Amino acid sequence: MSIQKMSRLLMCAAVFLAVPFSASAQSTQYGNAGPWSLFRATDNGQVVECYATMPGNNGASMIFTHQASSTAFGLKTRRTNDEGIGEQVLIWFDNNRAEGNYVQMGYSGEWLAYTTSNSEPNGLLDLFANANTISFALSLPGGGVETSTFSLKGSNAMTKQTYDCFQNPTSMPSSVAAMSSPRGQGAGCPAAGSVRSGNSGQTATLHIANSSFRPLKIFWIDQNGQRQFYQDLAHGQDYQQPTYLTHKWIAVDQNGDCVDGVLEASQPGYNMMEIFGDG
């Protein structure tokens, strides 16, 4: 590694924390900015985090999250923490790899995230808000490199809304239904707390395909019976969701209704789930 690249790594090093903030928090949709969907997470009535997610290609996704002491952005791909992905990741903007920065990233669940303290300015956050694209080069076991590139369309408006969502806790969210709260239950959805994920250690994969002619949001129902948002899925899109046997999932449309009931892997390994609804 060159001295220049090493100095960038040291300047960009940051303390990693889990994103999204808390499994006990309740997330409600706050708004949209281009392809980004924004959410506000509250715990006992207090805003603990605001975050935004955006689907990419081949089942990949991006996240941007803001909390009291830190801000983070990251990605989710078909790669997992178990594969031994290197924590030093090269990031560059607008196809300018020569000006890339090595940063320390870490996994929180399926998200690989770069996190920085809010106590001082961070140039990467400015670039994230104003660039057209961002690329990540992941170091694979055995010496390989896998590059993922995402459009940053709408990221400037999204970051401003995300900051405002957290810093102005009395601001009203969008008129979108509170899909993650018990009050957001719609047709076809299990009653709050009536369905919970089990504690199986057997891994599986749900290949979820949206053929319902409507945009969907994929939620995991955790062991406490609470919804945890994972993925936006437009009609015609599909992605592979790592999971466990006995874990429960639902697909929620723009009206807050659950499409095709509760989703669950029926066997270890690969499981295909095509969501049709009523068309």
Automatic annotation (TrEMBL):
The keyword Cell membrane does not apply. Keywords: Signal. InterPro entries: VHL_beta_dom, VHL_beta_dom_sf, VHL_sf. It holds the Pfam family VHL. Residues 1-25 form the signal peptide. SUPFAM superfamilies: VHL. Residues 195-257 form the von Hippel-Lindau disease tumour suppressor beta domain. This is von Hippel-Lindau disease tumour suppressor beta domain-containing protein. It comes from Maritimibacter alkaliphilus HTCC2654. The lineage of its organism: Bacteria, Pseudomonadati, Pseudomonadota, Alphaproteobacteria, Rhodobacterales.
